[in-house]
Queue: 3 jobs
Job 1
Amino acid sequence: MDFISLMAPMMGTGTGTGTGTGAQGGSGMIIMLVAMMALMYFMMIRPQKKKQKEEQNMRDNVQIGDEITTIGGIIGRVVTVKEDTLIIETGADRNKMKITKWAVSANNTANEKAEAERQAAKEAAEAEKKAKMEEAADASKARRKKTKKKDDTFDA
């Protein structure tokens, strides 16, 4: 079977004898095409635009002293930032290279800072959880002592 024979019932061009099937099939086809376009937009185009926006923001926020990785895999430290270009130092001999901003693949310094912040937040959450657990244990001990005193007073 080919595509046209599969789509014929939707278009209303089949061998059916019903009336008005052409108009219904055509509107169904249009609705299906609109739904497919919407699905394609939300699954492919929108995430790509979001990723491009994040990359452009990262490139615009490169500062002097940041360690970057270029698209070609060159790792260097930013020495000068201009409107569309960067000058980076690479290697032990401090060779300088002039590159365009669009060639920056990753800002390693910003990634390290973000990772350190995530780690600090995780440690703070763990410390808070531990403090709550200790507080609950202390409260439990205090309750046990109260109930023990009450039991002792009833015995006497």
Job 2
Amino acid sequence: MRVPRNYMSSLLNGRNMNSLLSGNSKSSGTSSLLQRALSRTNGSRRSRLSLQDSKTNGINRSSSGNLTGSVNAEKLYYNMKYHAGQVCDYADKLSDKGEDSVYEKAKSSGDTEEILTNIRGFVKQYNSMMANMKESGSRSDVNYQTQLNNLARLSSSELASTGVTRKTDGTLVIDEKKLAAADIETLEKVWGGSSSFASRAALRADSVEAYAERSMEAQASTAYSNLFNSYGSKGNYFNFFS
């Protein structure tokens, strides 16, 4: 059974950075100082710093501005971390074949709805995670995306027996009629156990989650560093507020 990582600190870091950079922070004296400083920073300098952040951390930024700087990159990695964690959580429920598993409950009740709900949840979060990795475009994310795509390709026939198919972009799509028609034994064979697609995908998703967390920390660190460096070039930082 997977032990989920504690990502509260990353959440707080992400929220703090978003509130600081949007000028809505009300939490502390330091945040207030930073808020006032940012309100005096011109947009062009912030754009240059944001572009440098994205290049430094291996984030792709298209000419149309899909990622406009460290705040958007940090938000992207927060979302990626969340969706990867959800993939792992749904996979835990689907791969468990113990006495309290969704399969044993279905065998007792004759109702497979709980199994189907977890499959739908897994597919939804899996697709969101894949979309986040595609948007990031970093070397590590492309590598994880390729691994997951290959895994789904190798498992395509088994998944298809439960109404789940792989699209060319690596995401999954559900045929609800086929999914609902799958019997308990087939659902357990395809989705249950440590060798199932869900369990093996969760191993990669766990790595994606860890990488996203490290990237969030790097984005926050770089943003703070560039902020203070930019003010430092004008003299004493706190003189800026006089």
Job 3
Amino acid sequence: MRRKSIHRLNQWVLAGVGVVLSLGLGYLFFSGNRYSQLIGFFSYMCVACSLVPLPTPPFVIAFGKVFHPGIVAFVGGVGNCLAAYAEYYFIIWLFSKTELQQQVEANRIFQRFTQYFQQATFPCLVFTGFTAIPFEPFRLAAILIRYNVPKYLLAVFVGRFPRYYFIASIGHLFPIPNRYLIVMLIVLFAVPMIGVFIKKRTLGSDVK
């Protein structure tokens, strides 16, 4: 019971962190100078694609309206690489203090997955980094197999740069009102929280 309450508290804390960061970046976007806008965007992207996943498309589109898509893609890609670098060593440290890695490596599904994943790790990371396919499981798998760090970071950047360039180009080419981007941000925050709520209600009804 205590673990459930702690887990629930952690979820609310992470959601609060995400909201604060999003509001802070929004404030910089509307009221800051160009230098502070880029610093804020870089800081947000360092956190957004790490252990605290946050929505990025609305901000990438918004900054594409102000900066060239290449600048937005480069800053976002470098920010993601910095997050991936910290995440890499944090997860290794975390797993070294627990039995999680042994449990994961003993899983037959994971063993089969890594047999194929190790044969094409770099292309898989690039492909999932660019597309809408969930990137996190592949990042975690790369860390667990101790994939070469420079190659890992290069794969993250190569996958993310064209993704952010494409999304930023939408804002650069089309006059999308900021109110629509705010609605998109709210929806991207709300959908996962609604999904968690429904899942908890479903599990609670099953137990009854």
